[in-house]
Amino acid sequence: MRRGLLTALYLTTLTGIAWAAWRGRDYYALPLLERPRHPLHWELKPGGELGHWFGVAGLGAMITMLSYSVRKRVPWLRNAGRLGTWLDVHIYLGVTGPLLIVLHSAFKVSGLIAISFWSMVAVATSGILGRFLYAQIPRGAAGDQLTLDEARRLDRELTERLRAEFGISDHQLSRLDAEQGDDRPARSLAAELAGLLVAPLTARRRFARFVREVPRLPRPVVARLGRAFRQRALLHQRLRLWRRVHELFHYWHVFHKPFAVLMYLFAAVHVGVAWATGYGLGGR
């Protein structure tokens, strides 16, 4: 349900942004000196009737993104929804906000605001990597990060569930673990991370092969067993990468945060100058 709503929100927003960019394509393609003669100039220029509000909406999205950091750090907000949902909204705003800022800039950035713009691009781009790394860290039902001991306890609980609820024997579990390479030598970090991208597909393939070798099971049981099996297989891969992913996540923060600070700092300067000069009020 949540994924469906998020997908619909992305499609609706990105379609609207794409339509706005296509509508003004002739104007955006012109050199700066020729734009004032275009009929859409007073509408699409950065301080124009629409261009101004593109900037307001984009900046609003970028500021609202900070609510995710507040949710993580304020104790009394720990029960205010799943952290994963907050992160989904954070990423949605981090995708749509920069695109709206691009429309606000009319596809031309220069001077000091270019520092904020390219910092924003760096923040949005690195955010994609950060989201992938975030997904590799085991988390509880509320989305909070598990400790190594808690993750290992979750692994034991999943193993016991496979034994008790589905009657999976120790021999079958050992065979499944061998197939997914739990005892293989450590590979490079890049190879392990790449393996995580295809992990759901390989887990499904191993499970399908396993189901064919056991007595016929009712469809609902197969579905529940498959979910438990895939969850355990993915957890095993993440446990193998525990230390290296945490180190990489730390260095990602070192890269991501300074660009975020630069982005907000120079955006504040830009808004202040626009407000002081009246240029950002949509007037001619």
Could you explain the architecture of this structure?
With 284 residues, the chain is mainly α. The protein is built from 12 helices and no strands. The relative contact order is 0.10.
Q: What Rg is obtained from the alpha carbons, in whole angstroms?
A: 24 Å
Q: Which runs of at least 5 residues are low in confidence (pLDDT < 50)?
A: none
Q: How far from one another are the termini?
A: 46 Å
Query: Order of SSEs, N→C?
Result: HHHHHHHHHHHH
Number of strands: 0
Mean pLDDT: 78
Q: Could you describe the largest sheet, including whether it forms a barrel?
A: none
Any idea what the shape is?
elongated
The count of domains is 2
Q: What portion of the residues fall into strands of 2 or more residues? A: under 5%
**Tally of separate helices:** 12
Coarse structural class: mainly alpha
- What percent of the residues sit in helical stretches (DSSP H or I)? over 70%
